[in-house]
Amino acid sequence: MKYILSLVCLIAGLVLNAQTKELKTYFDNGKLKSTYNYQDAANYTVQNFFENGNLMETGRFVNAKMDGVWINYSENGQRAGEAFYSNGVKTGDWKVYDLTGMLKYKITYQNDRIVNAISLDANGQNLAETTPR
Length: 133
Known about the structure:
Blueprint: H1 2-17, E1 21-26, E2 32-40, E3 43-49, E4 55-62, E5 65-73, E6 79-86, E7 89-90, E8 92-97, E9 103-110, E10 113-120, E11 126-130
Antiparallel strand pairs: 1-2, 2-3, 3-4, 4-5, 5-6, 6-7, 6-8, 8-9, 9-10, 10-11
């Protein structure tokens, strides 16, 4: 009977630990600063906010490393950038937008190294392109 009770407690503990938990931090004025939704200390999503309440950035950590898409916003709420990580390594197309939301730069990463960078004008046409050697 003791064995069964111990097993039930162990299973209940594992189920409770598998649930997502939420942690919130606040600015001194009481407004929301950050929200963390996590399984454990190494695996979580994060949302950071400006003091005006607008979203600043979103992203996630997997095994304590940045992973997947990270999106940044300007203080006025406009999308400012997109970045991609794989196991903490910069990868894929990163995009930087101006204050009106127009794409200004596209930087392509491969294994943490820039393999291409493009600067765009207001019409989305290439102004300059660089491919490091």
